[in-house]
Amino acid sequence: MTDLEDLIQRAIDPSAVKLEGTLTNPPSFGVYLIEDTDNGSRHYRFGNHPVRMHELEDKFGGCELEYLFLSREEAAAVTSALNKREE
């Protein structure tokens, strides 16, 4: 397995966290796909779930939760690897 595949194996099911206020318990970090339909480009962003998801929806008109992690570092690493793959 590649490092990316190893990291993706650590992703959790969104039903494993409970929404409390504007964040989740336990704290979770999403990796979000943003697609630009005008030019067909794709890129990924990450952040506190679901706050970051709402920010991206407001800024880009939509996004899709690809992976959810309990570790910010894992979410950042997956985002970086996915963005490099899209280049």
The SSE order reads HEEEEHEH
Structural class: alpha+beta
> Describe the biggest sheet?
3 strands, antiparallel
Spans of at least 5 consecutive residues with low confidence: none
Domain count, please report it: 1
Distance N terminus to C terminus? Answer: 21 Å
Q: Report helical residue fraction.
A: 25-40%
What spatial form do the alpha-carbon principal axes imply? flat
Count every beta strand, where a strand is a DSSP E run of 2 or more residues.
5
The main sheet orders its strands as 4-3-5
Strand fraction? 25-35%
Layout of helices and strands, plus pairs?
Blueprint lengths: L2 H6 L9 E3 L2 E3 L3 E8 L4 E8 L2 H10 L3 E6 L2 H15 L1
Antiparallel strand pairs: 1-2, 3-4, 3-5
Model description:
With 87 residues, the protein is α+β, with helices and mostly antiparallel strands. It has one domain (4-86). It is built from three helices and five strands. The strands form two sheets. The protein has a three-stranded antiparallel beta sheet with strand order 4-3-5, with helices on both faces. A two-stranded antiparallel ribbon has the order 1-2. β3 and β4 form a beta hairpin. It is flat, with a radius of gyration of 13 Å. The protein starts with a helix and ends with a helix.
